[in-house]
Amino acid sequence: MANYTQHCQLHQWEPEDHFLRTDFNTDFQKIDTELGEKSGIVFGTYSGNGNDSQEISLGFSPKAVLVVESSGLMGNTGGEWPIIYGGLALREMPVSTGRDKTALMLTDTGFTVYNHADFGYIRTNTADRVYGYLAVR
Predict the structure, then answer these.
(1) Of the chain's two ends, which shows fewer C-beta atoms within 10 Å, N or C?
(2) Is 99 exposed, middle or buried (0-12, 13-18, 19+ CB in 10 A)?
(3) Which helix H or strand E contains 66, and what residues bound it?
């Protein structure tokens, strides 16, 4: 009868043991899950909905989140008012204009993006635009 490893409960066969392909598949799934959790990096996309704000749930409290609009833009500072399409937010450092308008901030379960209609330069939640994100656990 197979023994199992201490941490992941992977099969450790004895010379006389018979084993099944499903045993290997189960072990590989456990390894894949453990490696995915250890990497600490999660990435994906979201679509802006045009509302004042939208919470993107990751299921954990991230240490950092980087958001980029599908064109690759994160901002444009070539005028009196900066246009913000994304940026890097840390726990105590949201992405903002410096004029009390937040574009991206971390939450206990993910992050929140904003679309300030009264302040048309915050565009991390513009309707029908796709944004990419990279989050660090």
Answers:
(1) N
(2) exposed
(3) strand 64-69
**Tens digits of per-residue pLDDT, 76-90?**
776 667 788 999 999
CA dihedral 120, 124, 125, 130 (to 10 degrees): 130
pLDDT in tens, 101-116: 899 999 999 999 999 8
Model pTM above 0.85: no
Antiparallel, parallel or unpaired: β 87-90 and 83-84: unpaired
Residue 129 CA, distance from chain mean position: 17
Cβ neighbours for 57, distance < 8 A, ≥ 6 positions apart: 109, 110
Nearest to 107 by CA among 51, 32, 57, 33: 57
